[in-house]
Amino acid sequence: MVTELAPEAAFGFGHPDCVAALEYVCRKLPPDEDNPAIRKHIAAEIVAACQKGQTSHEELASVGLKIVNSYLFPPGRAWLKTLGG
To answer: Where does the chain have alpha helices with state H?
Structure first.
Protein backbone atom coordinates (compact mmCIF):
# COMPACT_ATOMS: atom_id res chain seq x y z
CA MET A 1 0.00 0.00 0.00
CA VAL A 2 1.00 3.64 0.08
CA THR A 3 2.76 3.25 3.43
CA GLU A 4 4.99 0.60 1.83
CA LEU A 5 5.83 3.03 -0.97
CA ALA A 6 7.00 6.05 0.98
CA PRO A 7 5.44 8.91 2.89
CA GLU A 8 2.70 10.46 0.77
CA ALA A 9 4.19 13.92 1.13
CA ALA A 10 7.31 12.82 -0.74
CA PHE A 11 5.24 12.27 -3.87
CA GLY A 12 2.93 15.25 -3.60
CA PHE A 13 -0.15 13.18 -2.85
CA GLY A 14 -2.85 15.42 -1.54
CA HIS A 15 -5.80 14.40 -3.66
CA PRO A 16 -7.64 11.39 -2.19
CA ASP A 17 -8.16 9.86 -5.65
CA CYS A 18 -4.37 9.82 -6.17
CA VAL A 19 -3.94 7.68 -3.08
CA ALA A 20 -6.87 5.42 -3.96
CA ALA A 21 -5.65 4.96 -7.54
CA LEU A 22 -2.12 4.16 -6.39
CA GLU A 23 -3.36 1.57 -3.90
CA TYR A 24 -5.66 0.02 -6.52
CA VAL A 25 -2.93 -0.19 -9.15
CA CYS A 26 -0.27 -1.54 -6.79
CA ARG A 27 -2.62 -4.36 -5.77
CA LYS A 28 -2.53 -5.45 -9.42
CA LEU A 29 1.22 -6.09 -9.29
CA PRO A 30 2.13 -9.75 -8.86
CA PRO A 31 3.98 -10.24 -5.55
CA ASP A 32 7.17 -11.39 -7.27
CA GLU A 33 7.18 -8.30 -9.52
CA ASP A 34 6.35 -5.76 -6.78
CA ASN A 35 9.21 -3.50 -5.69
CA PRO A 36 9.71 0.07 -4.44
CA ALA A 37 11.11 1.29 -7.78
CA ILE A 38 8.00 0.39 -9.78
CA ARG A 39 5.77 1.84 -7.06
CA LYS A 40 7.69 5.12 -7.21
CA HIS A 41 7.37 5.19 -10.98
CA ILE A 42 3.62 4.53 -10.80
CA ALA A 43 3.23 7.23 -8.12
CA ALA A 44 5.17 9.77 -10.17
CA GLU A 45 3.03 9.13 -13.25
CA ILE A 46 -0.20 9.40 -11.24
CA VAL A 47 0.93 12.70 -9.71
CA ALA A 48 1.89 14.03 -13.16
CA ALA A 49 -1.54 13.07 -14.52
CA CYS A 50 -3.25 14.73 -11.55
CA GLN A 51 -1.28 17.91 -12.18
CA LYS A 52 -2.44 17.85 -15.82
CA GLY A 53 -6.06 17.83 -14.69
CA GLN A 54 -6.84 14.13 -14.70
CA THR A 55 -8.31 13.90 -11.24
CA SER A 56 -10.95 11.17 -11.28
CA HIS A 57 -10.11 7.79 -9.81
CA GLU A 58 -10.78 6.13 -13.18
CA GLU A 59 -8.40 8.44 -15.06
CA LEU A 60 -5.63 8.07 -12.51
CA ALA A 61 -6.03 4.30 -12.23
CA SER A 62 -5.89 4.05 -16.02
CA VAL A 63 -2.57 5.92 -16.04
CA GLY A 64 -1.18 3.61 -13.37
CA LEU A 65 -2.43 0.46 -15.06
CA LYS A 66 -0.71 1.49 -18.29
CA ILE A 67 2.57 1.62 -16.36
CA VAL A 68 1.90 -1.79 -14.79
CA ASN A 69 1.07 -3.32 -18.17
CA SER A 70 4.17 -1.89 -19.82
CA TYR A 71 6.24 -3.16 -16.88
CA LEU A 72 4.78 -6.67 -16.98
CA PHE A 73 4.49 -6.86 -20.78
CA PRO A 74 7.26 -4.73 -22.33
CA PRO A 75 6.55 -3.32 -25.80
CA GLY A 76 7.43 -5.68 -28.61
CA ARG A 77 6.55 -8.73 -26.56
CA ALA A 78 2.77 -8.64 -26.98
CA TRP A 79 2.92 -12.07 -28.62
CA LEU A 80 3.93 -13.56 -25.26
CA LYS A 81 0.76 -12.14 -23.72
CA THR A 82 -1.29 -13.87 -26.44
CA LEU A 83 0.44 -17.18 -25.75
CA GLY A 84 -0.11 -16.83 -22.02
CA GLY A 85 3.59 -16.48 -21.25
So the answer is: 2-5, 16-27, 36-51, 57-72, 78-83
